Amino acid sequence: TRSVLFEMIGYRHDHHLPTIFTSNFDLADTAQRLVLRGDDPVEAERIVWRIAEFAEVRELGGRNLRQAAA
């Protein structure tokens, strides 16, 4: 069966709807993590391809606020 993520991204992509993705992982790592969670490797690549196709990647930097101050 197709994942909910694939369906959601496909719908938003096909209807040109604005979508914001946030992640601690780049697109290659995202595909790997989808496969590790049990998604089909081909479907994982399709999900990442759809994201890459209509996304404008913005890398944000800065210190990790989750780490305790030293």
What does this structure look like?
- It is a single chain.
- The protein has helices at residues 4-14, 27-36, 41-54.
- The protein is mostly helical and 70 residues long.
The major β-sheet equals:
none
Tally of helical runs? 3
The level of helicity is: 40-55%
The low-pLDDT segments are none
What portion of the residues fall into strands of 2 or more residues?
under 5%
The average pLDDT value, as a whole number, equals 85
Which structural class should the secondary elements be placed in?
mainly alpha
**Rg calc:** 14 Å
Shape, per Cα inertia axes: globular
How far apart the termini lie comes to: 47 Å
Q: Helix and strand string, N-terminal first?
A: HHH
Q: Quick one: how many beta strands?
A: 0
Record keyword descriptors for this entry:
70 residues; mainly alpha; 3 helices
Summarize the model shown.
The chain has 70 residues and is mostly helical. It has helices at 4-14, 27-36, 41-54.
Write the layout of secondary structure elements.
Blueprint lengths: L3 H11 L12 H10 L4 H14 L16
